[in-house]
Known about the structure:
The structure holds two protein chains of two kinds. By secondary structure, chain A is mainly alpha-helical. Chain A has 17 helices and one strand. In chain A, helix 9 crosses helix 12 (266-291), helix 9 packs antiparallel against helix 16 and helix 10 (225-239) packs across helix 12 (266-291). Chain A is globular and about 90 Å long. The model of chain A has no long low-confidence stretch (mean pLDDT 88). Helix content of chain B is 38%, strand content 26%. Chain B has nine helices and ten strands. In chain B, helix 3 packs across helix 4 (116-129), helix 3 (100-110) packs parallel to helix 5 (145-157) and helix 4 (116-129) packs across helix 5 (145-157). Chain B is globular and about 55 Å long. The chains are: A mainly alpha, B alpha/beta. The interface between A and B is medium-sized, with 19 and 25 residues.
Amino acid sequence: MTSQASPETLSPPITVVGPIAWLRQNLFSGWVNGLITVLIGAALLWLVLQVGQWAATEARWSVVTNNLRLFLIGQFPADQSWRVWLNLAIVSVLAGLSAGVYGQATRALAITLAACQLILAVLMIISPLGFLPALALSLNAAFVMGGFLVGLRGLIPRRPIAYAWLISLPISFLLLNGMGGTPLPSISTNTWGGLLLTVLIAVVGILLSFPLGVLLALGRRSQLPMVRILSTGYIEIIRGVPLVTILFMADIILPLFLPGEWRLDRVARAMGGVVLFSAAYVAENVRGGLQAIPSGQIEASQALGLSTTQMNLFIVLPQALRSVIPANVGLFISLLKDTTLVTIIGLMEVLGIGRAVLAQPESFGAYLEVYVFVAAVFFVLCYAMSQASYRLERALGVGTR
Amino acid sequence: MTDKDEIIIARDVHKWFGALHVLRGIDLTVKAGEVVVIFGASGSGKSTFIRTINRLEEHQRGEIIVDGIELTNDVRNIAAIRSEIGMVFQSFNLFPHLTALQNITLAPMRVRKYARNDADAVGMKLLERVGIPEQAHKYPAQLSGGQQQRVAIARALAMNPKIMLFDEPTSALDPEMISEVLDVMRGLADESGMTMICVTHEMGFARAVANRMVFFDHGVIVEEGPPQQIFEAPTQERTKQFLSQILH
């Protein structure tokens, strides 16, 4: 020890906080900045007032509410629409339970699901759909809350919920598609439409393109030349072709190659096209994540005697997939928006329904109302996905090693 | 044919990286329970050589026999040999998405098919042995370098190897953490009679623990012998030169 006195521990310098200080610091730090703040503020205020006035007084929102059933489920038979609401109820219970048990990412989705169903319930009351579906959707929102509270109590272990989600997929399909019998008569997918169709195509697209893309990414880095060439070829060809072209091919050309008795459903064909398209992009994202794994991780796995499959499953993929969550969610958001392209092959998703509604004489000229509604629907869905992604990243500690 | 005690036999091992001839005929035999320290300048091929022993690098000429099994391209041989050999790396190479305990139990559970409880028990015992049982549920990023390397040693030991390879285990550590890792390695050599090959420049460790020291230079073994002879009476000029550089 030298004779130097040990320095005191000092408290950090005081920084001014509070709204006034914030305003002065950020918006009015000089007369030029002050002027700009005032001008931009005035312009924003004017814009909000104009839009607000239009939305409150001039807009004919009845165009949306009168056609709410079309927007939600398309031509799905009205007397069978309970099957959609019941399906939503299953999803609501599971989403609520997941939000309680898993927390974080699923919570954003559960909140969105509950909020959207409540908003739709309000819209339904003033629409010809009437009271019963509104009650069903309100109940569903309550299911989300109830599931959440039950999940929070920790009474239900994690794994059964994951299994329940898996089981819910075929149940949903049976419920919507029907079994041909009396309780559940078959409903042609030609009648499926609106938000129902948008969400179905997006969900199937995401759920199936993700594993396919991961396999393609692994295939592209495989030691086996044939696997590598096929994977690379697939990825490059699909990425070189617009989605519209793939949808056309799936719709028109694919049936030509299939034997006559193979009548592949039109919605299934569209889903297939979206899955095949999206998988190539998932593969490239995942490949980026795979490349970022340090070689030491692979050497350590090999030195421990793990097989290649075990190494990929337990070491490489968990790290790689975690690091590509932001990129993949971005991809899935654009997938959701790209589902609007299925109108081209004659399917009526939300935007297609919007155009059909505009073609009715009684909604003549109500372009803004319809498109604002469609835009709002997409915004809510995409925003929920991006929020879920941020929370998932935080929960999994992306960016921290 | 071979002496039963000879657990690692390398004969005339050659290795090229592209046109670069990095191993130029290595002959080395290690007996069971022996502690061999390999030292030499960087780029002398010492790391490459120990990595050929568990096939992280492929040798292109000569033969390597580990515990009676010859290393060839036969995948079963490679798996069999790797399960006999534990390896500790310079940069730890812990799995960042797993806790310390999970890092240790992964291979026993997946390769040896241990039940989780058994694997956890083994893992905790090993963490106690390397002196950090309280860190079991932390992630590698939450541990100091010395702690990470001790977890890495425990991870390698969890497969019950007959041989441990150490590839510059203390080179990436801050000075105050080197001794905690060396103590664990010393304990391993003293108590369990483990066969160990260590690439290291920790000459104090080598003098205290090694049965034999091997000096690598430009892809060949220049000199080998017991520590006392290497330190006090090296026969080769290059060995003398190198030792004078690192011992100040």
